[in-house]
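Hi R.,

Here's the input for the magnesium ion complex you asked about:
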Amino acid sequence: MTEMFETTSPEETEALGQRLASTASPGDIVCLSGDLGTGKTVFVKGFAKGLGVSEPVVSPTFTIVQEYREGRLPLYHFDVYRIEDPEEMEEVGLDEYFYGDGVCLVEWAGLIKDLIPENAFDVVIEKEPEKGDDFRKITLIRPESRETLE
Ligand code: ADP
Ligand code: MG
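And here is the predicted structure with magnesium ion in place:
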């Protein structure tokens, strides 16, 4: 199922992330795509807040994955922007995260799409310059296994 949203501020995008987090289950994977600066990390911040994480979410650009354990479920925040070869991800032990007890949010997931399980959520964030600097179109695609709204 595909849902479309429009936001006009970072706070609104955060609120959307927060809302998705409220229905998150262990093993959920959320792939985030969109150009640099569209709001993927902003969405993750909202998601973290929705799980009850109070520590600040920082972009894990240099570590590939950042873990947050203080929320309702463990949150694993990936940013694979700097990955040059998907094989680099093997060192990270991706499956431990993907098939683990937490929720994975993956920025730039398109770069490792062959490694992403089929049951992932997709969040695509796009700007529409003619609608202003702060406008974002956000498309949420739920996996078939999660099509009912809890
Ligand atoms: P990304 O992780 O996609 O590279 P960031 O989340 O780090 O992008 O940055 C998004 C930037 O866009 C932030 O500076 C944020 O304040 C700004 N912004 C403006 N409008 C919005 C909006 N509607 N939703 C999300 N971010 C927005
Ligand atoms: Mg980012």
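One thing worth noting: The mean pLDDT is 93.

Cheers,
M.
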